[in-house]
Design a protein that fits this description.
By secondary structure, this protein is of the alpha+beta class. The chain has one domain (about 5-50). It is built from 2 helices and 2 strands; from the N terminus they run H-E-E-H. Strands 1-2 form a two-stranded antiparallel ribbon. The longest helix is centred in the N-terminal third of the chain and has 22 residues, at about 1-25. The chain is elongated. The N and C termini lie far apart (about 60 Å). The relative contact order is 0.11. The model has no long low-confidence stretch (mean pLDDT about 75).
Length: about 55
């Protein structure tokens, strides 16, 4: 039972990692209230194009 729980947690962590990497999400933990904040991050090349176009 212990090994099954370990495998389940490992698989869930791998899926979350892949989702974050592929879709440019950022997860931060606030030190005050220890809440997770998830936000979608714009890829770097889009940011560079946006800054060049708007500045």
């Amino acid at each position: 039972m212990k090994n099954r729980a370990k495998e389940f947690v490992t698989e869930a962590a791998e899926r979350i990692y892949d989702l974050l990497k592929d879709n440019h999400y950022e997860v931060t933990i606030h030190s005050k209230d220890k809440r997770l904040k998830v936000r979608q991050v714009r890829p770097t090349r889009h940011t560079i194009k946006w800054k060049a176009k708007n500045h």
